[in-house]
Structures are given as C-alpha cells and as structure tokens.
Amino acid sequence: MVANGGAVLKVALIGAGAIGAKVAELLGTGAAPGAELSCVVPHEATEGFSLGEALKDADVVVECAGVPAVRQYGPAVVAAGKDFLVTSIGALCDASLRSTLLDGGSGRTFLTSGALGGLDAIAAAATGGTVHSIRIESRKLPESLIQPWMDGDTRNMLRAAAHPVELLRGGPEELISSFPKSTNIVSALALAAGNWDIVEAVLIADPAAGRTSHHVVVDTSLGGFDIRITNEPSPGNPASSALVPHAVVRGLKTLANPSGSFI
Ligand SMILES: NC(=O)c1ccc[n+]([C@@H]2O[C@H](COP(=O)([O-])OP(=O)(O)OC[C@H]3O[C@@H](n4cnc5c(N)ncnc54)[C@H](O)[C@@H]3O)[C@@H](O)[C@H]2O)c1
C-alpha cells in the first residue's frame, strides 16, 4: 500500500542478516523518508510472534531471507492485500509461485534491482520491442561460492584456486538451484525481459574478484546494452553485495513517496 497524505509506510522485515540488518539500520536513520520499520519477523515464528501478527500492522513486507522464505511467506502476504518486496528473486523461477505473487493476490509484489543496474532499460526494450538475448558473466571470490552440496574435493579446489574456474553455465533455474544466495540477478534479468528462455549465465569463481563483477550483454530490437557492474562484498556476508540493502531502501523510498521517480 502506498503511503498517501502523509501516512507512514510501515515496513516488516523477513530476515535480519547482512541485507536485512542494514535495511533496518538505514530505516532507523531516516534514509527512506515516510517509511519506518514496524517489525522483524523471527525465524520459524518463534517468540510467539508470527507473520500474521506482522501483517496486521505492516503496509509492506520486505524479504531479505532467501529463496525458501519467498515461498514460505509470499503467497500469504499478497493474499492479505499487503505489498511484498523481494530480494530473493530467483524464487520466481517457479512459474506457479511467480503467477501467485505477480498476478494472484490483492497485494503487489515488487522486485528490488539488488546488485544490478540496467534492468530498467531491458524492461523498456521488452515493453516496446523484443529482447533477443541476454548473456551474463559473474565473477565472485571462490570461497563465497562454496555450497552445502559440494563434495570435499570441490571445496578444497575452490579454497586453493589460484586461477578463475567456471562453475556453472545455464539459465536462471539452473543457477538458482545450485547457488541460491548468489545468482538472484540472473532471474531478475529474465523478469526484466519477460522471457526465461533467452538468458544465459556463466558463474566463475575468481580469486582476483575482490569486488564481485557482472558483465551483462543484451541484444534487443531497440538497441544493444553492455553493462559492467562491480560490487563491494557485503561486510556481513561475502556472498552478498553491499549495494543490495541500499537498493531495497531506495525502493521503499519510492513506495513511500508516490511522486518518486523510476531513476
Ligand atoms: N537481488 C539481489 O541482487 C540479491 C543480492 C544478494 C542477495 N540476495 C538475496 O538476499 C538473501 C539474503 O541475503 P543476506 O546476505 O542478508 O543473507 P544472510 O544469510 O546474511 O541473512 C539471511 C537472514 O534471513 C534469516 N532467515 C532465513 N530464513 C528465514 C525464515 N524462513 N524466516 C525468517 N528469517 C529467516 C536468517 O536467520 C538470516 O538472519 C539471499 O539469500 C539472496 O537470496 C539478493
């Protein structure tokens, strides 16, 4: 719900890790005028506090907790007529969940620009023309890409890597199912283009990637985009980017102020 006539936009947070804790801190310092933190939903609804209780007070629920949390909470949020701001965009690879969140509820689902830029231009090209192809190459520090499913040899290889190693090449679904905390932007590109079949991603473990880097090459009927982004890792989580909480707060700022711009 957009705050109108001076009403405050009340924000419930799911997840208070590297992104969520910074969002809470920024809201506390007034970084999004017109928006204020109403609560943080605890993990597993402990302490007698639940999403239902949070929904009574909140206008918007912000997910900063991971792909499973989008599945767990998202449908109830939009069904309750509340807005849902998602960081774990890879959850929308699931077509059924995507339809529930984007088209199914009385609340609206918003997707943060997160660690990436240029999504606005891709969405504009998709609106007025055709997006033919999107290729993204991401490089991250090897240690930050170690996953619970990896065997000992793979973990050791990543810890000792002295040269770049290509870990995975594929579409949004393949990337998010293997690296759910690190490849949400691949799904964001597919959503911006409105096409899940034209995005090819390459994930590289690179010991030289002190800053995470993304190189996105887009071919559309309205022009080509060549986007290069480097992100400082989040101080609280090297698998995450320091830019993301600021993208979330910027989104809340726009929601709290209906006269806000898209740039
Ligand atoms: N869109 C983007 O560009 C982008 C970039 C980075 C990360 N992300 C997404 O943001 C997520 C959060 O990132 P982070 O760096 O803050 O992770 P983090 O691990 O530092 O913090 C996650 C927090 O969520 C909490 N949590 C997990 N499941 C929960 C649940 N079911 N209910 C309540 N709390 C729960 C955890 O306890 C933890 O405090 C990532 O998992 C990733 O999916 C998106």
What Rg is obtained from the alpha carbons, in whole angstroms? 18 Å
Strand order of the largest sheet: 2-1-3-4-5
Class by SSE composition: alpha/beta
CATH hierarchy, class of the largest domain: Alpha Beta
Number of domains: 2
Mean pLDDT: 94
The portion of residues assigned to helices is: 25-40%
Can you offer a commentary on this structure?
- The protein is an alpha/beta fold and 263 residues long.
- The protein has 2 domains: 9-114 and 243-256, Rossmann fold (3-Layer(aba) Sandwich); 119-239, 2-Layer Sandwich (Dihydrodipicolinate Reductase, domain 2).
- The chain has 9 helices and 12 strands.
- The protein has helices at residues 18-28, 51-57, 67-79, 95-104, 119-128, 152-160, 172-178, 184-193, 244-256, and strands at residues 9-14, 35-41, 60-63, 83-86, 109-111, 131-140, 165-170, 199-205, 212-220, 223-231, 233-234, 237-241.
- The strands form 3 sheets. The protein has a 5-stranded parallel beta sheet with strand order 2-1-3-4-5, sandwiched between helices.
- Helix 1 crosses helix 9.
- The longest helix is centred in the first third of the chain and has 13 residues, at 67-79.
- The protein is globular, with a radius of gyration of 18 Å.
- The protein starts with 8 loop residues before the first strand and ends in a 7-residue tail after the last helix.
- Residues 14-20, 41, 43, 64-67, 69, 72, 87-89, 112, 114-115, 181, 184-185, 234, 236-237, 240-241, 244 line the site of nicotinamide-adenine-dinucleotide.
